[in-house]
Amino acid sequence: MATIHDVAKMAKVSVTTVSRVLNNRGYISETTRNKVFQTMKELNYQPNELARSLLRKQSNVIGLIIPNVAHPFFAELASHVERYAYENGYKIMLCNSHLDPVKEKEYIDMLKRNRVDGIIMGSHTLEVKEYKELHSPIVTIDRQISEEIPFISSDNYEGGRLAAQLLVDKGCRKIAHICGNLELQLLANQRTAAFRDVMAENEIEPIIIQTDMNVFDEQQYEQIMSRLFAEHPEIDGLFATSDIIASFAVKECRKADKHIPEQIKIVGYDDVSAANWITPSLTTIRQPIAEIGRVAVDSIIRQMNNEPLEHRYVLEVELVERLTT
């Protein structure tokens, strides 16, 4: 394997010159620069990225910690984060926490050891002090953990209001809401707060069912739906806090011989790609997933460059009506 010394010898320049070319430091003539790059290509020389990052005090790597990469929302989010990071000259180190605080802490320690330039947190199982002690650029998604740490979310309250109001406007009067566990203190809880407010305004007694603490465990969704329809067969409207939960509701309606949307209307949240694939296609609240990814990367870069930035990014949502309503 070629070394920097081999490059310098073949190009007939000093090792310092090769280092300056690699790190774009100091004046180097275009002729010399081209000669060094051509020599590197001929020798198939691969620079030591860790050594270069130590020299520059910058790794050009951003850490992304999410609860479950298999979940459609986080899969799409990760794809957008990677794309925007790459367009800005950064790579992504992806960590899958599965909402395990021990695993999340190990990943944070690993990212610190690898001197990543910043961390985008989509998983939040640790105490706030763990994040404050990072001393590096950080941005959180759907959780405000500190006044000093920027966060990004969709307008969860408006999304919940739009979903609930649509069901009311469609004539639903026995309306249920399936949400994540409210003890997690996520900004997504505002969807439930808005749902309660709309039900109260219309004098409708809501039915609210929470998942367990692992809100992304899909095995529980079928059980929740089966129990809901068994205990409340009169339900004619359902707002699920994610498209995946709403998809399980569609599946369970088939089993219970409930016709959509004639007998029951269903609204999800997120507008992941699968929302338009299922039959019937899902009415949902669209989160701007691509924009969340872009803003997350931009926030990290702004912190690195000591540029002005917002600490509160609340992005607009949109009601997308399809065949389940």
Task: Kindly describe this structure.
With 325 residues, this protein is of the alpha/beta class. The chain folds into three domains: 4-47, lambda repressor-like DNA-binding domains (434 Repressor (Amino-terminal Domain), Orthogonal Bundle); 61-153 and 289-315, Response regulator (Rossmann fold); 156-288, 3-Layer(aba) Sandwich (Rossmann fold). The chain is built from twelve helices and twelve strands. It starts with a helix and ends in a 5-residue tail after the last strand. Keywords: DNA-binding, Repressor, Transcription, Transcription regulation. Residues 2-56 form the HTH lacI-type domain. It holds the Pfam family LacI. InterPro entries: HTH_LacI, LacI/GalR-like_sensor, Lambda_DNA-bd_dom_sf, Peripla_BP_I.
